[in-house]
Amino acid sequence: MKQARKWGLTLALALAAGWSALAQTISSPNKSLQLHFSMSSDGAPMYRLSFADGQEIIRPSHLGLEMTDSKKSFDKGLEVTGTKESTFDETWKPVWGEVKSIRNHYNELLVTLKKKSNGDPIAIRFRLFDDGLGFRYEFPGGKDRNFYVVKRELTEFAMTGDHKAHWIPGDYDTEEYDYQHSRLSEIRGLFDKAFTENCSQKAFSKTGVQTPLMLKTDKGVYINLHEAALIDFPAINLDLDDKTMVFRVELTPDAQGNRGHIEAPFNTPWRTAIVSRDARDILASKLTYNLNEPCAYETTDWIKPIKYVGVWWEMITGKSSWAYTDDLPYVKIGETDYSKVRPNGKHAANTKHVKEYIDFAAKHGFDAVLVEGWNIGWEDWFGNSKDRVFDFVTPYPDFDVAELHDYAKSKGVKLIMHHETSSSVWNYERHMEKAYKFMVDNGYSAVKSGYVGNIIPRGEYHYGQSMVNHYLHAVKEAAKHKISVNAHESVHMTGLSRTYPNLIAQESARGQEYQAFGGSKPNHLTVLPFTRLIGGPMDYTPGIFQMDISKYNPQSNSHVNTTICNQLACYVTMYSPLQMAADLPEVYEKHMDAFQFIKDVAVDWDDTKIIEAEPGEYITIARKAKNSDSWFVGNVAGYDGHKSTLSLDFLDAGKTYTATIYADAKGAHYKTNPEVYTIRKVKVKKGSKLSLQSAPGGGFAISIIPNSGK
């Protein structure tokens, strides 16, 4: 009762402070949500979001932008010059995705405003979907109204209570943190512990958090806050006023401290709130994609979902090395003579070894092999703020590009290029055209790029406007060469893969590699789909079967905090059209029965059913393979494990199927007994029920294949 009175008083104070009673309201297409717009008494635009039954989701919240030139600010002193309501309904087909088609249905309110003092115009466009809200600022431009420098964005998300949240520290440079689960009021006290060391990071507030941010109210409402269509603008974080429970957008600054340069006509990215009383709806939402523009390419047949293996995990664990030699403290591209140095004997990207991976990929039906450490420059690449660090075209002496191209082609396998930039963006852009042409000439159709370390130009951040522009520039330039891009250490995804589907995946979160850097929380994979994956697919690199990292590297005491079946389930629960079997071939050879699921599982889908979900605790998803009647089911569980009773209502009536069930064995546990599992086959049909128990940090995976002729 005290909490209810507190928030009732807060609303009363907001109304007294100037929230106009003359709010304009629109409803979502199915009437479940309502968006209320109004102006405060001092001429500031405001909005409120509620369910149709009146329950508030977002309390009255300010909108606007403050400019470095206060005369150009859109913070107060505004008046409405017009409003327009409209509706839109289409169904579009993604190039790849979780479903065959996506409905884009919303009601829209466009509010045009001007400054009373000088007549400068701005518009705010709201789109209200059945599962949430998107809104953005639009600058029409005009004489003396084309250029603005943003000092700060004033957008607020005023929460209705001290919600529970899955959050990571606000940061301009990295998203690679373990998620915390706490009340909003507890963020300040937990921040220092959550702000773990990274090679490039910049916090801005002890109450700052990143998006996508997953929230749950005490009344059981799930809220996800993020942005969509991030183009030519800095990425957002959120800063919480933990007395009023109001989030304000925090834009990533540039080297001068400015928060964005606008050249009008211009539209900002959308600010988004996905809401539901059912957690499954958050995972199923396509709101983020729907707020992006349609595909920008005339043809897309060159963009292919990929299942791959690679020369990567052995370096991550310390078993092997990216560098060719230990004799060079300094490398100068174009001058250092590698024929005169002694190989270190640990360099993994050598011709013989890569052929072994190609053979493994061909034998087991994989599309491609990623190779890292193939190019010169790895001896001094990190931590030196070095500009001319790589040229992206010159191989080490033990890596024969032409021979491996011919060998892979003869086996029906592609090679995936690796471009680590060491965050020297100048250097990458000066080499980009030559590097992409090199890929085409040598049969590479996809690239994994990396941005480890502090950005060059120095003083810029990973999520600032210039870097946001660079990441998209790389994707667009790659498309000219029919190359797909998988960027690591880049800005969070915001649905841009709808417009640019060769942006096939990104990392942009704490990935599998951290399991070899000390481990991640055992419920990490029950949180990522509710947070990072809201914006688009992640190259998480699942499929680790050897959990004790000391078996690869005796000097490491790291442990992979999952079970084998949890790793299998990732191929279903962690959606991506780019999926890696990340472990070493010799490890898979010991577990070929479990490896069969990785071989069988699809990477592109016609349909998806979110069966059960609770962020931080469990997720169970069923997906139907593209152009197939086969289904695959995955469950990941958190600290307490999870008991599932599945009803296979999604199967076609009149057909029988064989379900192969990969489940945690009795006594399985992510820490003490992670590598035990059982495999059994059962006949199933529509409506069949399966009862399964996932271990702590565990899960299960099921392939459901139709029986021939039935």
Taken from the alpha-carbon principal axes, the silhouette is: globular
Q: Counting H and I runs of at least 4 residues, what is the number of helices? A: 12
Structural class by sheet pairing and helices: alpha+beta
Residues in helix, %: 10-25%
The average pLDDT score comes to: 96
Using the CA coordinates, give the radius of gyration. Answer: 26 Å
Give the termini separation: 60 Å
Q: How large is the share of residues in beta strands?
A: 25-35%
DSSP E strands, number: 36
State the low-pLDDT regions, or none: 1-19
Biggest β-sheet: count, sense, barrel?
10 strands, antiparallel
Topology diagram in text:
Layout: H1 2-16, E1 24-27, E2 33-39, E3 45-51, E4 56-62, E5 65-67, E6 78-92, E7 102-115, E8 121-129, E9 132-139, E10 147-153, E11 156-158, E12 164-167, E13 180-183, H2 187-194, E14 208-210, E15 213-216, E16 222-228, E17 236-241, E18 246-251, E19 261-263, E20 266-267, E21 270-276, H3 279-284, H4 287-290, E22 306-311, H5 313-316, H6 351-364, E23 368-371, H7 401-410, E24 414-420, H8 425-441, E25 444-450, H9 465-480, E26 484-488, E27 503-506, H10 564-573, E28 578-580, H11 585-588, H12 592-600, E29 605-614, E30 618-625, E31 631-637, E32 642-647, E33 656-664, E34 677-685, E35 689-694, E36 699-706
Parallel strand pairs: 22-23, 22-28, 23-24, 24-25, 25-26, 26-27
Antiparallel strand pairs: 1-2, 2-3, 3-4, 5-10, 6-7, 7-8, 8-9, 9-20, 9-21, 10-19, 11-18, 12-13, 12-15, 14-17, 15-16, 16-21, 17-18, 29-30, 30-31, 31-36, 32-35, 33-34, 33-36
Helix pairs in contact: 6-7, 8-9, 10-12
